[in-house]
Design brief:
The structure is a single chain. By secondary structure, this protein is of the alpha/beta class. Helix 1 (about 10-30) crosses helix 7 (about 110-120), helix 20 (about 480-490) packs parallel to helix 21 and helix 22 (about 545-550) crosses helix 23 (about 570-580). The chain is globular. The protein binds one DNA strand through helix 2, helix 4, helix 7, helix 9 and helix 14.
DNA sequence: GCCGTTTTCGGCCCGACTGTTTTCAGTCG
């Protein structure tokens, strides 16, 4: 029965259902291509810029690659009723506890089916008991050793850490690279995988090395003090789990053949599948080893090495398919192949394009470091400006500033800027100082109250260099209320940037329930920038949302939201998200000079 | 189940490692 009153399922919820269907079909032993089709469709829905269920309910189903007639019918049913009979029947047949067994490393769908059919295993505990009782060894292809592996796999699953934040991944990678750097024979070593693509969270880490002495490198790698266990170890490849840390894969490549290796191990899997398809169309088989010419039978030729093509760089390896180099952040099969074929890849914004930072805090509100420390730190990073945006009065928990403290803070900012100007004139500023000089701009992080009013009066807001507006409180309001509050900030002539528009914390706090397209359209119409918040706990807007916003004409600010000096470097993660959203420097307001930025903020009433 | 400037049927990406195997299936990335 239709239930138009209930909120439509989110893309994430739809994707989870179709992934689960794919998993259940795998366990049932269904044709593998069918299960893959469900997973592909689930991924496409998860990354869709439009709210799929809402669009179906409105009678305007979007065209989604990988969603054909059968899956479209299922989305339709889910969108209209919130239920899917096919899914519910499947869950009775293949209980979720059985699907959960797929999470055990080393246990795949065939094994789960075998365990269920032959031993009646339905849950993790069933399997644990069976392995401990030694009843697995009687099954075809299983032994005592299998039982040990299953038990170890269950332990791993139960201890499995959540995916890492980018900053955590970076720290581990840098430690590993330092520990392996002095290995004899090593020519180069670098991270690949989702960390190189800068996905918002990282599961496993991948390292790629060129070395003349593979055995020595692999040996040192598996012997590192932080290695808890060795998962696999071959002559050119090894996988380990770190103590209280992630799995790390090391791959050794022959010197001067890195091109296809880097592509293969950087991924994404979906990007690689597309490349292999292109290679196949041209009569070549692509693997990490290079391009191998296909014979008349459609199989790669064996024997003579004459038909293997290898390349020292990724650019050359892409070039073999007639493609330009594709930036790692774009390699998600979200249109980058088509753009590359058409010669229309975007020029992505780079960290060095940024001239300043529009969102930062001091110990006047909830930051750690003093105003002067924050300013000095930004100056020594070569910025032309840092906007100090401490919280406003109603956010008492963060010591929001009342009017009297705003005035005192303003005098401190002015005094600092006088000193900076004097030093620049006298030539005594730090050598890292930007050519245009450095100034601390005065702003605030303006609270949008629960009733959609702004925390400071217009007369006060008009005195700031730049204002970022934020929704922090009353997050559980209705979609209409939350959207109205965000729009109130966007429509204010004094609000220049909407800070962390979705208000999420990765892994712990969901996005605000907003009418997103309306928010994007209004931001575009008024010229209000949306923030790409660089805190690796936020990364807000997400890459998917930012790309949609850009399609609708929005501009953005890449901000650190630093609460201490070290966090100023959060700009690198904000930049990564901008790149994953296909954004160029022209869309980012803080690629502008200080004078241009100030002109832009002063022009807002005229932009409306 | 999806998809089509070679197909509306017949394909659908590739290889290393593991374990139990005597030639290969399963899992993983």
């Amino acid at each position: 029965m239709d239930d138009p009153e209930s909120p439509p399922l989110s893309n994430g919820e739809l994707a989870r259902i179709f992934h689960e269907i794919g998993d259940m079909l795998e366990v049932k032993g269904e044709l593998v291509f069918k299960t893959v089709a469900y997973h592909r469709a689930a991924d496409a829905i998860a990354h869709s810029p439009v709210e799929v269920a809402r669009a179906y309910r409105a009678g305007d189903p979007p065209r989604i690659a990988g969603v054909g007639e059968a899956i479209a019918r299922k989305i339709e049913e889910l969108a209209r009723t919130g239920h899917l009979a096919f899914y519910e029947h499947l869950r009775e047949e293949v209980p979720p506890s059985l699907v959960a067994l797929l999470g055990i490393p080393g246990v795949g769908p065939r094994t789960v089916k075998q365990l269920h059919d032959e031993l009646g295993v339905e849950t993790l505990d069933d399997l644990r008991r069976a392995a401990e009782a030694g009843t697995l060894r009687g099954l075809r292809g299983m032994s005592e050793k299998t039982e040990e592996q299953v038990l170890a796999g269950i332990a791993t699953l139960e201890n499995r850490k959540d995916r890492m934040r980018l900053g955590q991944a970076e720290e581990i990678v840098e430690t590993l690279l330092a520990e392996l750097a002095e290995t004899p024979g090593l020519r180069s070593i670098q991270p690949a995988g989702s960390f190189r693509r800068r996905r918002e969270t990282i599961g496993d880490l991948d390292l790629l090395a060129e070395t003349d002495r593979p055995l020595e490198l692999v040996g040192r790698f598996v012997g590192l003090p932080t290695v808890e266990s060795i998962i696999a170890r071959g002559p050119h490849k090894a996988a380990v789990r770190l103590l209280r840390g992630p799995q790390v894969d090391l791959m050794v490549m022959p010197p001067d053949e890195a091109g296809t290796y880097l592509i293969h191990f950087t991924g994404s899997k979906e990007h690689n599948v597309r490349l292999r398809g292109m290679a196949r169309d041209r009569g070549w088989s692509l693997s990490e080893k290079g391009y191998l010419r296909l014979g008349d039978d459609g199989e790669p030729a064996t024997g003579d090495a004459a038909d293997l093509r290898v390349f020292p760089t990724e650019a050359e390896a892409y070039g073999f398919l007639g493609l330009p180099f594709i930036e790692p952040e774009l390699r998600e099969d979200r249109g980058e192949i088509e753009a590359a074929v058409a010669g229309q890849l975007p020029r992505l914004v780079a960290r060095t394009d940024l001239r300043g930072d529009c969102h930062s805090h001091s110990d006047w509100s909830d930051g750690v470091h003093a105003i002067e420390q924050m300013a000095e730190s930004a100056r020594r990073r070569g910025y032309a400006y840092l906007v100090l945006t401490d919280h406003t009065v109603s956010l008492a928990i963060a010591r929001g500033l009342d009017l009297e403290r705003v005035e005192r803070q303003r005098r401190i900012v002015a005094a600092l800027n006088e000193r900076f100007a004097r030093e620049e004139a006298a030539g005594t500023a730090p050598p890292e100082t930007a050519p245009e000089g450095f100034r601390l701009l005065h702003g605030c992080e303006l609270e949008v109250r629960a009733d959609a009013t702004l925390d400071y009066p217009d007369e006060l807001l008009a005195t700031y260099d730049l204002v970022v507006g934020s929704v922090h409180v009353a997050r559980r309001q209705s979609r209409e209320q939350l959207t109205a509050r965000t729009l109130a900030a966007i429509r204010s002539p004094h609000v220049d940037v909407i800070a962390h528009p979705a208000g999420r914390y990765i892994g712990s706090r969901e996005d605000l329930d907003l009418d997103w397209d309306t928010v994007y359209e209004e931001a575009a119409r008024t010229g209000t920038a949306l923030e790409l918040n660089g805190s690796d706990e936020r990364l807000d807007l997400s890459d998917v949302r930012a790309r949609r916003a850009a399609e609708l004409g929005c501009v953005f600010a890449i901000d650190s939201d630093a609460h201490r000096t070290e966090e100023l470097d959060n700009l690198r993660w904000g930049t990564a998200m901008a790149r994953r959203a296909w954004l160029g420097p022209d869309r980012i307001v803080n690629t502008r000079s200080r004078a241009e930025l100030i002109d832009w903020t002063a022009g807002k009433p005229g932009r409306v």
